[in-house]
Amino acid sequence: MTPIRVAGPTVEPVSVAEMRAYLRLDSDEGGAEDALIGALLAAARAGIEAATRRLLAPGRYRIMLTAWPADGIVPLPLSPLSAVERAGLVDARGAVADLPPGVVRLGPDPFESPALRIDPGAPPLDARAALVEVSAGYGGDALPVPPGLAQAIRLLAAHGFEHRGDTAAPPPSVAALVESLRRLRL
Fold it and tell me: Which of 101, 110, 124, 145 could be disulfide-bonded to 138 (CB atoms 3.0-4.6 Å)?
């Protein structure tokens, strides 16, 4: 079961305007560097997300289950989880019948061990599949991005801006900011 992104980030944790100010770029340049800055911010966010195993921009994800787990817990690689947006049963024709609220809900710790809890009274799947859509990630209507991770994005994007075309290693301060907020794996 791999979560599939059905709605991507609509807002980056650090805006192009914020990054222009951080880089001390003149505003009278007419935005000549804005596309590059936007691409560097997206790449920096993706790098920090990979290092921390946390989503730094909000998104909506779909999960399909062909069987309910025996223990009623579905661990997810999406942190932090914000909400269960939809849960339903999909029949052989592809029609979705929504499940009542509460049958599928967030686990107790959406940050360090994100998971879904399935009510023991959930209807059997038989020849059907369960479709669950969740919102995950910082920003938007969810929790704000931790300041240390926003700063790591700025530092990494600034490094990319200053060293265009070079193979210089990222500054060690980025790793120091990221390390304390990295989700651990067993």
Answer: 145
